[in-house]
Protein backbone atom coordinates (compact mmCIF):
# COMPACT_ATOMS: atom_id res chain seq x y z
CA UNK A 1 0.00 0.00 0.00
CA UNK A 2 2.74 2.49 0.98
CA UNK A 3 4.83 1.99 -2.19
CA UNK A 4 1.73 2.53 -4.35
CA UNK A 5 0.79 5.65 -2.38
CA UNK A 6 4.33 7.01 -2.66
CA UNK A 7 4.40 6.34 -6.41
CA UNK A 8 1.01 8.02 -6.76
CA UNK A 9 2.18 11.08 -4.80
CA UNK A 10 5.40 11.29 -6.76
CA UNK A 11 3.42 11.16 -10.02
CA UNK A 12 1.04 13.84 -8.77
CA UNK A 13 3.94 16.08 -7.71
CA UNK A 14 5.66 15.77 -11.09
CA UNK A 15 2.33 16.43 -12.83
CA UNK A 16 1.78 19.53 -10.71
CA UNK A 17 5.22 20.86 -11.51
CA UNK A 18 4.80 20.32 -15.24
CA UNK A 19 1.22 21.60 -15.31
CA UNK A 20 2.36 24.77 -13.56
CA UNK A 21 5.07 25.19 -16.14
CA UNK A 22 2.57 24.62 -18.94
CA UNK A 23 0.12 27.17 -17.55
CA UNK A 24 2.86 29.78 -17.40
CA UNK A 25 3.63 29.39 -21.09
CA UNK A 26 2.09 31.22 -23.99
CA UNK A 27 -0.30 29.38 -26.29
CA UNK A 28 2.33 28.92 -28.93
CA UNK A 29 3.58 25.65 -30.36
CA UNK A 30 7.35 25.39 -30.44
CA UNK A 31 9.18 22.37 -31.83
CA UNK A 32 12.09 21.57 -29.57
CA UNK A 33 15.13 19.74 -30.89
CA UNK A 34 15.39 16.03 -30.20
CA UNK A 35 17.49 15.05 -27.20
CA UNK A 36 19.93 12.24 -27.76
CA UNK A 37 20.77 10.22 -24.66
CA UNK A 38 23.53 7.66 -24.65
CA UNK A 39 23.90 5.43 -21.63
CA UNK A 40 27.31 3.97 -21.42
CA UNK A 41 30.53 4.74 -19.73
CA UNK A 42 30.60 7.95 -21.71
CA UNK A 43 33.80 9.89 -21.77
CA UNK A 44 33.12 12.68 -19.30
CA UNK A 45 35.14 15.84 -19.80
CA UNK A 46 37.74 16.72 -17.14
CA UNK A 47 35.91 20.01 -16.45
CA UNK A 48 32.72 18.10 -15.65
CA UNK A 49 34.53 15.55 -13.48
CA UNK A 50 36.35 18.30 -11.57
CA UNK A 51 33.07 20.13 -10.97
CA UNK A 52 31.32 16.93 -9.90
CA UNK A 53 33.98 16.04 -7.33
CA UNK A 54 34.10 19.65 -6.15
CA UNK A 55 30.38 19.55 -5.29
CA UNK A 56 30.10 15.93 -4.18
CA UNK A 57 32.44 13.88 -2.00
CA UNK A 58 32.10 10.34 -0.67
CA UNK A 59 29.85 9.24 -3.52
CA UNK A 60 29.26 5.74 -4.86
CA UNK A 61 27.31 3.98 -7.60
CA UNK A 62 28.10 6.76 -10.08
CA UNK A 63 26.38 6.40 -13.45
CA UNK A 64 26.97 8.97 -16.21
CA UNK A 65 24.67 9.53 -19.19
CA UNK A 66 25.43 11.91 -22.02
CA UNK A 67 22.45 14.08 -23.02
CA UNK A 68 23.37 15.82 -26.25
CA UNK A 69 26.34 17.97 -25.16
CA UNK A 70 25.55 17.77 -21.42
CA UNK A 71 26.13 15.14 -18.75
CA UNK A 72 23.54 13.64 -16.39
CA UNK A 73 24.85 11.73 -13.39
CA UNK A 74 23.03 9.59 -10.84
CA UNK A 75 24.77 8.51 -7.66
CA UNK A 76 24.42 7.65 -3.98
CA UNK A 77 25.67 10.10 -1.37
CA UNK A 78 25.08 9.80 2.39
CA UNK A 79 22.46 7.07 1.84
CA UNK A 80 20.49 9.35 -0.51
CA UNK A 81 19.75 8.77 -4.18
CA UNK A 82 20.91 11.86 -6.06
CA UNK A 83 21.27 13.13 -9.59
CA UNK A 84 22.70 16.20 -11.25
CA UNK A 85 22.99 17.73 -14.70
CA UNK A 86 26.19 19.41 -15.86
CA UNK A 87 26.86 21.46 -18.95
CA UNK A 88 29.91 20.34 -20.92
CA UNK A 89 31.90 23.28 -19.50
CA UNK A 90 31.43 21.91 -15.96
CA UNK A 91 28.66 24.26 -14.84
CA UNK A 92 26.08 22.40 -12.74
CA UNK A 93 22.52 23.16 -13.87
CA UNK A 94 20.80 21.33 -10.99
CA UNK A 95 21.14 18.77 -8.23
CA UNK A 96 18.24 16.71 -6.81
CA UNK A 97 18.40 14.30 -3.88
CA UNK A 98 15.75 12.10 -2.29
CA UNK A 99 15.73 11.28 1.40
CA UNK A 100 13.85 11.12 4.66
CA UNK A 101 13.22 13.29 7.70
CA UNK A 102 16.75 12.66 9.01
CA UNK A 103 18.17 14.34 5.88
CA UNK A 104 16.42 17.66 6.53
CA UNK A 105 18.51 20.51 7.95
CA UNK A 106 17.64 20.98 11.64
CA UNK A 107 16.10 24.44 11.17
CA UNK A 108 13.79 23.25 8.38
CA UNK A 109 12.73 20.17 10.33
CA UNK A 110 12.00 22.38 13.36
CA UNK A 111 10.00 24.79 11.19
CA UNK A 112 7.77 21.95 9.96
CA UNK A 113 7.41 20.24 13.34
CA UNK A 114 6.49 23.48 15.16
CA UNK A 115 4.06 24.70 12.49
CA UNK A 116 0.54 24.72 13.97
CA UNK A 117 -0.91 22.87 10.96
CA UNK A 118 1.76 20.15 10.69
CA UNK A 119 3.17 19.33 14.15
CA UNK A 120 1.21 16.04 14.35
CA UNK A 121 2.31 14.82 10.92
CA UNK A 122 5.12 12.38 10.12
CA UNK A 123 7.66 13.50 7.55
CA UNK A 124 7.79 10.47 5.25
CA UNK A 125 9.91 11.66 2.32
CA UNK A 126 11.91 14.74 1.37
CA UNK A 127 13.36 16.01 -1.88
CA UNK A 128 16.12 18.60 -2.05
CA UNK A 129 16.45 20.65 -5.24
CA UNK A 130 19.38 22.96 -5.89
CA UNK A 131 19.30 24.99 -9.09
CA UNK A 132 21.61 27.95 -9.51
CA UNK A 133 20.97 30.10 -6.41
CA UNK A 134 17.74 28.33 -5.44
CA UNK A 135 17.53 25.77 -2.64
CA UNK A 136 14.12 24.13 -2.36
CA UNK A 137 12.96 21.41 0.00
CA UNK A 138 9.80 19.42 -0.74
CA UNK A 139 8.42 17.30 2.09
CA UNK A 140 5.67 14.70 2.19
CA UNK A 141 3.76 14.81 5.49
CA UNK A 142 1.38 12.07 6.56
CA UNK A 143 -1.09 11.32 9.34
CA UNK A 144 -3.98 8.85 9.60
CA UNK A 145 -6.24 10.84 7.28
CA UNK A 146 -4.10 13.02 5.01
CA UNK A 147 -0.96 13.29 2.96
CA UNK A 148 0.33 16.82 2.51
CA UNK A 149 2.98 18.05 0.10
CA UNK A 150 4.81 21.16 1.29
CA UNK A 151 7.55 23.27 -0.24
CA UNK A 152 10.14 25.34 1.62
CA UNK A 153 12.23 27.97 -0.16
CA UNK A 154 13.85 31.14 1.20
CA UNK A 155 12.35 30.54 4.65
CA UNK A 156 8.85 30.46 3.10
CA UNK A 157 6.73 27.38 3.78
CA UNK A 158 3.94 26.70 1.29
CA UNK A 159 1.38 23.90 1.17
CA UNK A 160 1.37 22.62 -2.39
CA UNK A 161 -1.24 19.87 -2.20
CA UNK A 162 -3.35 17.98 0.35
CA UNK A 163 -4.74 14.50 -0.25
CA UNK A 164 -7.32 12.63 1.81
CA UNK A 165 -6.47 8.99 2.33
CA UNK A 166 -9.20 6.65 1.17
CA UNK A 167 -10.12 3.61 3.21
From TrEMBL:
Gene3D superfamilies: 3.10.450.360
Assigned keywords, A-Z: Signal
Signal peptide residue numbers: 1-24
SUPFAM superfamilies for the chain: BT0923-like
Superkingdom to which the source organism belongs: Bacteria
Protein known as: Beta-lactamase-inhibitor-like PepSY-like domain-containing protein
Record organism: Paraflavisolibacter caeni
Lineage, uppermost ranks: Bacteria, Pseudomonadati, Bacteroidota, Chitinophagia, Chitinophagales
Amino acid sequence: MKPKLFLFLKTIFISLVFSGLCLAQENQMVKLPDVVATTNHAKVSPKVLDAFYHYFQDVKDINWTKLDENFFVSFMMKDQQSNALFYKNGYMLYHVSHGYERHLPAQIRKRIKTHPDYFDYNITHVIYINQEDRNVWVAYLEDNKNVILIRIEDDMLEEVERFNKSL
